[in-house]
Design brief:
With 120 residues, the protein is mainly α. 71% of the residues lie in helices and 5% in strands. It has four helices and two strands. A two-stranded antiparallel sheet has the order 1-2. It is elongated, with a radius of gyration of 16 Å. It starts with a helix and ends in an 11-residue tail after the last helix.
C-alpha cells in the first residue's frame, strides 16, 4: 500500500510541477508523466531492496561495507533519478539546478513512511 501511495504522490508532484511551474518542469503528455512516475518508483523499489539486502548482510560482515555506501547514496539518489529522467525520457525536461533541489525536497517531504507497530 505504501508503494502505491508513493507512486501516486510522485505522479501528483510531477503533475503539479508541470501545471504550475511549466517553465521549470515540462512534461509533454500524460503518458510521459506516468512513465516518469513508474520509473521513479521502480528505481526506488530496487534501491530499497538493495538496502534490505545490505542490512541483512551485516551479520555476515559484508554489510558493514555496503550499508554506509547505500545510506550516502540515498541522499543523492533522488536528484540522480531526476537527472536520468531528464536525460533519457523524451518529453520530460527539468530546467535549472534549483529545480532539482526543490523537487528533491518536495518528493522527500511527501514520501509516505510507515511507522513500525509496537507489540507491547
Amino acid at each position: 500500500m505504501r508503494n502505491i501511495l508513493n507512486l501516486i504522490v510522485t505522479a501528483l508532484v510531477f503533475w503539479i510541477g508541470n501545471e504550475y511551474f511549466h517553465q521549470y518542469l515540462a512534461i509533454s503528455d500524460t503518458k510521459t508523466l506516468i512513465i516518469a512516475s513508474v520509473l521513479m518508483f521502480v528505481i526506488s523499489f530496487l534501491f530499497s531492496l538493495a538496502m534490505v539486502l545490505s542490512v541483512l548482510l551485516i551479520t555476515v560482515g559484508i554489510g558493514c561495507l555496503t550499508t554506509p555506501a547505500l545510506i550516502l547514496a540515498s541522499m543523492i539518489l533522488t536528484p540522480i533519478k531526476l537527472w536520468l529522467l531528464d536525460k533519457y525520457l523524451y518529453g520530460f525536461e527539468i530546467h535549472g539546478f534549483w529545480t532539482y533541489v526543490i523537487l528533491t525536497i518536495v518528493l522527500s517531504m511527501f514520501t509516505v513512511k510507515l511507522k513500525p507497530k509496537k507489540n507491547d
